[in-house]
Amino acid sequence: MSDAGPNHAGDRDQNRPDDHADSTGATQPGGRGHTRPVREYRMSGGDRVGNAIFGVLARAGIGPAHLLTTRGRRTGRPRTVPVILVQQDGRRWLVAPYGAVSWVLNARAAGRVTLRRGRDRRDYTFRELSAAESAPILKRYLRIAPAARPYFQAGTGSPVDDFVAEAHRHPVFELTPIDSDRR
Predict the structure, then answer these.
(1) Can you list the domains of the chain with their CATH numbers?
(2) d(CA 60, CA 62)
């Protein structure tokens, strides 16, 4: 699944280098002294098919995916992509494993998002986390969303400090329900 990648061909700036994690293709030390190149996200036909499949599953409430809807920052139209949330102790975090892609820019501009899974639909505000706050969430994310691993220099066995070092490339948002009774 291409969790949180660009979701529509109509957004002409979706492939601008500064919208993506480490567009230079630079490498940095990963865990245990290894150097791992970081893949730059580009949506492929396979990603579109994967998004469509995960979207159907999320609408049915099957599997880990949720549908994230943001308002287009220029058009105002709803934009929806499947995402994987990190959940622990009743808290929820939204991770952008591919960097500041369109949904991240749209969410930042709107200040709120909607998540849907099955019949459950809720609106959220969010707070973007600092690198130190993001690191343990990013580490957990890699364990539950293995398809995102090529976009990270740190691996599942890396120490949290490795995730702090690359947190600037993977925004993390803590979600707060706007109306917890809405279903």
Answers:
(1) 43-177 (2.30.110.10)
(2) 6
Q: What is the pLDDT of residues 6-28, one digit of tens each?
A: 333 334 333 333 333 343 344 44
Residue 78's H or E segment, with its range, is strand 78-88
Residue pair 67/80 in contact by the 8 Å Cβ criterion:
yes
Integer Cα distance of 30 and 138 in angstroms: 14
User: Residue 181: how many CB atoms within 10 A of its CB?
Assistant: 6
**Per-residue pLDDT tens over the stretch 103-115:** 999 999 999 999 9
What's the DSSP call for residue 39?
A: P
Angle CA 175–181–183, to nearest 5 = 85
Supply the DSSP symbol for 129: P
